[in-house]
Write a structure and sequence with these properties.
The protein has about 475 residues and is mainly α. Helix content is about 60%, strand content about 5%. α2 packs antiparallel against α6 and α7 runs antiparallel to α9. About 0% of the residues have low confidence.
Length: about 475
């Protein structure tokens, strides 16, 4: 372990703009006003395309899931979204949580330096990702001469999100990351319903015939599946195991330790999907390489007209050649499922020869199985790297004075109890979020499974926070007691 104080940030942080803390505690009404105002700015940037972007070519089939997770919109001012904040936070928190570095978060000076480093890293990543999005072609530009101005706009938008997040954390009701994700998913659900579902329903009804009502109901499929995923997510977030604990220093004082079913939330499926999507990006530029290496590249990922349509990466991804990327892309669920049952994709052999024809239903099975395996791996990895495993959690409870009722104060006893639940809950929760995300993706649920899971969790957390704020305003003495 390396004890890092980040003293070098003292001379750098004074050049990094910072949002000042409010001079006095804000009321719930004032926090709501700030929250609405910041969300208004976010939606303005979300719906404003950067100057020089070719709007007619803006598509995001590959980055759709990542865009929802990172509260972004390809081609807009905030194309990069909250990605730099999340990446900077994850890397530094993993380094600290894994013990590679050690920062004393109880020390205000070290904590301030660490937060300044996070902000500086997020700004640097924002600039780098803005350049990468344009150079990779994911943000189509009208002409090569517009590349510089587009990069500049995306960088300014990404840096603006960094400071909007800081403002929301200090003046709003929750962090900006949470609100931007929830707002982005909610917008995707509403916009998707208005622009996709309703035209399909109108077309199904005007077509007439005895099948018109059934076709109209099927046209609502993506919305109905989104609602179903939403309800399942609410139920999953409410599931938890409560372990009895007692406070060793005060006889008769006890409590319960909740272990939620979604112990690692949706992080496993986020990391698994990010890895799969990264593969599609990494191997895209290799598809045009000549020689014997080209066969190996096509075996790994085959692109047809710039679209992933074959290879190993295709088999582990939810990608389907347009217009089959979504059920409503082919006129409804009947043609969509017919496509899955009858179509085949090419799996090119690395040493040449005729490609193997892989049925799309096999593609679906492989995608789900690989996603589930990756979710379990990342779920177990995450609790180990962030200190949420039974051993570290037992040590934390021991330091706070908690113990198991009826047993002597020993972290080994707490660990033994936690070992009965946390490993199993981690695996089951990871499998669940992976399966729900796959279900939502394959059925075309608006907002995607991850987006809905994240939004439900954020709304539930904000609801609890609003209840607490309202309680403190009603009974001010409680605020003094808890501080």
């Amino acid at each position: 372990m390396i004890n890092v104080t980040f003293e070098f940030m003292d001379s750098i942080s004074k050049y990094i703009p910072s949002i000042k803390q409010p001079k006095k505690p804000l009321s719930l009404r004032e926090k709501m006003v700030w929250t609405v105002g910041i969300l208004g700015i976010y939606f303005l940037l979300y719906n404003t395309y950067a100057i020089g972007v070719n709007i007619t070519d803006v598509t995001q089939p590959i980055l759709q899931l990542i865009s929802i997770i990172f509260a972004a919109r390809i081609g807009s001012i905030i194309t990069v979204g909250i990605g730099p904040i999340v990446l900077s936070s994850i890397v530094l928190q993993l380094l600290n949580g894994s013990g590679i570095i050690h920062v004393d978060m109880d020390n205000p000076i070290e904590k301030g330096r660490f937060q300044s480093l996070q902000k500086m890293s997020a700004i640097i990543i924002a600039v780098v990702e803005s350049v990468a999005f344009v150079l990779s072609g994911y943000v189509p530009i009208s002409s090569p001469a517009d590349a510089g101005i587009v990069m500049l706009q995306l960088a300014i938008g990404a840096i603006s999100i960094v400071f909007m997040d800081e403002t929301m954390s200090k003046y709003g009701i929750t962090s900006g990351i949470n609100m931007f994700i929830a707002a982005g998913v909610s917008y995707a659900i509403v916009a998707g319903t208005l622009t996709v579902i309703f035209p399909e329903v109108v077309g199904a009804i005007t077509a007439g015939g005895a099948a018109a009502p059934a076709n109209a109901i099927l046209a609502f499929g993506p919305l109905l599946f989104a609602i179903l995923v939403f309800l399942i997510s609410i139920y999953a977030y409410e599931m938890k195991i409560e372990l009895p604990l007692s406070f060793g220093q005060m006889r008769g004082v006890g409590g319960r330790l909740p272990i939620p079913f979604l112990y690692v939330s949706v992080l496993p499926v986020i990391l698994a999907t990010a890895l799969e999507e990264s593969f599609t990006v990494w191997f895209k530029f290799l598809s045009g390489v000549g020689g014997s290496f080209a066969n190996l590249a096509k075996f790994i990922a085959y692109y047809s007209n710039g679209t992933l349509s074959g290879g190993l990466i295709y088999l582990i991804s939810p990608s389907f050649p347009l217009p089959y990327a979504a059920p409503y892309g082919v006129g409804g669920y009947i043609p969509y499922f017919s496509y899955l049952l009858t179509h085949t994709s090419d799996l090119f052999l690395p040493f040449g020869g005729k490609p193997l024809l892989v049925p799309e239903w096999v593609h679906v099975i492989i995608y789900v199985v690989v996603l589930e395996i990756l979710c379990v791996i990342f779920g177990k990895f995450w609790i180990e790297m962030t200190g949420q495993n039974p051993e570290k959690l037992a040590d934390q409870l021991q330091e706070m004075g908690w113990q198991i009722p009826g047993f002597r104060r020993d972290p080994r006893m707490i660990k033994k109890l936690l070992d009965k639940y946390i490993p199993d809950v981690t695996v089951l929760g990871s499998l669940f979020v992976g399966l729900l995300a796959a279900f939502a993706t394959l059925t075309g649920a608006i907002g995607t499974g991850m987006g809905i899971l994240l939004t439900v969790g954020i709304i539930y957390m904000v609801y609890q926070q609003l209840e607490q704020e309202n309680l403190y305003e009603t009974y001010p003495i409680l605020d003094k007691i808890t501080k």
